Amino acid sequence: MKTCHFLSVLVTVLAVATFSTKAGESIPLVYNVENSGANYPAPSLPPLGSLPYDQILPDPFLWTSSYLNTNWSGRSTSFADWEHHRSEIIAEIENYEIGTKPAVDLSQVTASFTNNDANNGVLTVTVTVGTNILTLTCPVTHPSTNGIYPVCIGMNEPYGSLRDKMFTSRNIVGITFVHNQVTTYYHPQNTDPFFKLYGPAQNIHNTGQYAAWAWGISRVIDGLYKLNGNLGGTHIDLSHIAVTGCSYAGKMALISGALDERVALTVAQESGGGGANSWRYNHYQTNKVEDIDNTDYQWFSQERLRKFAHDNVYYLPEDHHELDALVAPRALFLTGNTNYLWLGNPSCFVCSMAAQQVYQTLGIEDRFGFNVDGGHQHCFFPNDQTNDLAYFLDKFMSGQTNLSKVVASHPPEYATIDYAKWYAGWGVTNTLQ
Predict the structure, then answer these.
(1) Distances, alpha carbon 80 to alpha carbons 17, 29, 83, 331, in Å
(2) pLDDT (0 to 100) of residue 71
(3) 398 annotated active-site
(4) Quick one: DSSP state of residue 95?
(5) DSSP SS3 for 155
(6) Is 378 one of the catalytic residues?
(7) How confident is the model at residue 26 (pLDDT cuts 50, 70, 90)?
(8) 282: closest CA among 295, 270, 269, 264?
(9) Exactly one of 78, 376, 378, 409 is catalytic; which is it?
(10) Burial level of 17, CB count in 10 A (0-12/13-18/19+)?
(11) CA distance 95 to 297
(12) CB 61 within 8 A of CB 111
């Protein structure tokens, strides 16, 4: 029997849904491992027909078994349990949306760096699985003087679609991730390097490109670790790695930062549906935006996500406020652009407000921010977002940890959106019908 968790009954219970974390818990800014929760046993995840029907955003602090059995008391907001929560949410997103991101031992990775001139070079990373080899060649832009510097891995460009000067003025090295070296944008085939490496068990039907691309970005980070951060005279500070991208590459950056805890700062620019938006809210909106019904299934797993189209979205046991939350306790900055209806900006706002609750609960609200504005072209970084981005770069890339700011900018008309009802039932035991 399916249990219904409805939006309509939640408004009255908001006042009792409190959030707290234990005093004195130390909250790291970043980790030196890809997934600190990798050793937790995978939760048992049932097929679509056995999932609860839930119209609000699932509670990130509920254990998966409690959620699936609608036993809402099985939750923990202690930071000590967060890596376990993360492991369960990752398992859900891989199982129901993108497919498996394979684990890689550093013994399978080799790396080298070649300087072309005073400001440019190439990082080469190879991954060997059995008799198959995948090679990544990543252009590197770096300062002309020797030193220890933070680094940004950008999708398609060294700093994504953000302004280069905001990074170069802070001596942040730029590395370009060339995603077609993993699987070809808009035209994946089982002969792509990633699927040759892991096929036929992983193929274009059961594994989405976002799982493959996120895997590739983690291998670039592996390469930096194999070299101990040494790129000639430029030395990478491995505790200050950022990823960024815009639009479909914004989704790529968000998923990559969510799944690799060595990333200290994730900047997902105008990522739209399947990125920093809620699948549920996108479906709920009356205006047509990117939702599960019409997203590009090649990016996700065709065998997995397609099942949750239309009203089946309410059976999805996770949503993208939890994808955002996977970045915690590390830093995350999201942007939107109201000039483009397709981006589903109200959904980005609602999803961000829900993700903000997670950061607040863990006592690290100043590590998360969002800015939804308009008046500019898609993927053009506007002036009114520069101060927010500067804060995240200064604190989480340049090490100015004394800074503290809560970034939450949105159009004035969004004040009428009843965002709180989408998470008002978290921690409340009597909201079922």
Answers:
(1) 21, 15, 7, 18
(2) 80
(3) no
(4) I
(5) strand
(6) yes
(7) confident
(8) 295
(9) 378
(10) middle
(11) 15
(12) no
